Amino acid sequence: MAKRYEPGEPEPEPGREPEGMDLVHLLREVTVRLDLAGARFAGRNGLHPTDLRALVSLLDAARAGAESTPGRLGERLGLNSAGTTALVDRLERLGLIRRVRDTRDRRRVLLEVDERAIALGQSFFGPLIDRTIDLLATFEAGEQAAIRRFLSGVRDAAGEE
């Protein structure tokens, strides 16, 4: 959300961007480049961009210790039931995920990412992740905390409607 100026507060001069817009533009450029990298990965592996988002979502859930169901996946991706079923069917056919019965409730289906999908993603994104970790290591703990706070705030702001 753009900064709101209070009465009496000086607004930026016409033609000048508010302070911090350079970071907004840089963040947008990073987002575009990451999106293009994801599209290259998807294209090379016969995936739709939504397939990649689904795999990332499932991996993030697993990392957080959360179970994934088709309903939760569809909700996270903004898909209806039919779209979610088609997505899960496609990823399962490709051998990237599997449906497993919940051991506590046999009526419920859980989704798991196959190790082949993890290896495939690591082969493509691993070097980028390694370079990013190396870059982060050049920042002090306080700087990393500021970066984390900023990125978390942007994530939360992007989730607001």
Quick take:
The chain is 63% helix and 6% strand.
Describe it for me?
By secondary structure, the protein is mainly α. The protein has two domains: 47-113, Arc Repressor Mutant, subunit A (Orthogonal Bundle); 115-161. The protein is built from six helices and two strands, in the order ααααββαα. The chain has helices spanning 21-44, 49-63, 70-77, 81-93, 115-136, 141-159, and strands at 97-101, 109-113. The protein has a two-stranded antiparallel ribbon. Helix 3 (70-77) crosses helix 4. The relative contact order is 0.08. The model has no long low-confidence stretch (mean pLDDT 90).
By CATH, the architecture of the largest domain is named Orthogonal Bundle
Rg result: 20 Å
Report, as a whole number of angstroms, the end-to-end distance: 10 Å
For the biggest β-sheet, the strand order reads 1-2
What is the averaged pLDDT score? 90
Shape label: globular
What sequence of helices (H) and strands (E) makes up the elements?
Answer: HHHHEEHH
Domain HTH marR-type: 20-156
Protein name: Transcriptional regulator
GO molecular function: DNA-binding transcription factor activity
InterPro entries: HTH_MarR-typ, MarR/SlyA-like, WH-like_DNA-bd_sf, WH_DNA-bd_sf
